[in-house]
């Protein structure tokens, strides 16, 4: 990782936003598998929010970097027996995919004095068997139930990872169906926000009016 990588990513986002006439999104640095020293370098450059996929990595890095002003965001698959520790360490969870887990997060957000606790629903937009997340048809129901029964949660919107075949290089003039569906789905989910877009589909995500982009590889190559 170098200062140049970070500057290039920021410049690319800014350039695309100008081209597409979109506001700058929030940048979430994805640091799965990255060393604590790499994260510290990014933090020194001004990056504050970091996304982690695994509790074991998260715990170790949070301990090593406790002296830094870092906000940890969980973007991995949730497991019931790990939610308490994730809520304690993180300021946000982007991968909520069941009401059962919503109740756990709600309880621990209250216990740790983190109410209202920001969460996103993970949506498996193309029903890919290897990916977690709820079906698009479940979004409105689950969002309504969380709003009614989980007083310590602040439902922000939707997080999704569309199929890898959709990339900026192949879609210059049109927005693929999964992105259009997500753009519509977010309207009925909490605060109507969207966490979408990685290095390969950044332009598509911005075209779909994402609020958060999750970038990992481009920050560290």
What does this structure look like?
With 221 residues, this protein is α/β, with parallel strands linked by helices. It has one domain (3-213): TIM Barrel (Alpha-Beta Barrel). It has helices at residues 3-20, 36-44, 55-64, 83-89, 99-111, 139-149, 177-185, 202-207, 217-220; strands at 26-30, 49-52, 71-74, 92-96, 117-123, 153-160, 193-195, 212-215. It has an 8-stranded parallel β-sheet with strand order 7-6-5-4-3-2-1-8. β2, α3 and β3 (71-74) form a beta-alpha-beta unit.
Helix content bin: 25-40%
CATH C-level: Alpha Beta
What is the number of independent domains?
1
Uncertain residue segments = none
**Proportion of residues in β-strands:** 15-25%
Shape: globular
Named CATH architecture: Alpha-Beta Barrel
Q: How is the CATH topology named?
A: TIM Barrel
Strand order of the largest sheet: 7-6-5-4-3-2-1-8
Through-space gap between termini: 6 Å
């Amino acid at each position: 990782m170098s200062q140049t990588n970070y500057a290039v990513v920021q410049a690319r986002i800014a350039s695309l936003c100008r081209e597409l006439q979109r506001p700058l999104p929030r940048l979430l640095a994805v640091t799965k598998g990255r060393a604590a020293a790499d994260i510290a370098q990014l933090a020194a450059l001004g990056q504050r929010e970091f996304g982690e996929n695994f509790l074991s990595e998260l715990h170790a890095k949070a301990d090593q970097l406790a002296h830094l002003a870092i906000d940890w965001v969980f973007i991995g698959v949730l497991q019931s027996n790990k939610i308490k520790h994730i809520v304690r360490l993180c300021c946000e969870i982007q991968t909520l995919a069941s009401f059962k887990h919503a109740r756990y997060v709600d309880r621990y957000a209250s216990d740790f004095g983190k109410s209202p606790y920001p969460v996103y629903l993970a949506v498996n937009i193309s029903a890919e068997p290897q990916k977690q997340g709820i079906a698009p048809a479940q979004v409105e129901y689950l969002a309504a139930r969380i709003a009614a029964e989980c007083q310590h949660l602040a439902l922000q919107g939707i997080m999704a990872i569309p199929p890898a075949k959709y990339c900026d290089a192949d879609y210059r003039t049109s927005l693929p169906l999964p992105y259009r569906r997500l753009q519509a789905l977010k309207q009925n989910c909490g605060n109507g926000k969207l966490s979408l877009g990685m290095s390969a589909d950044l332009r598509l995500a911005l075209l779909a009016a994402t609020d958060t982009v999750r970038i990992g590889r481009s920050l560290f190559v």
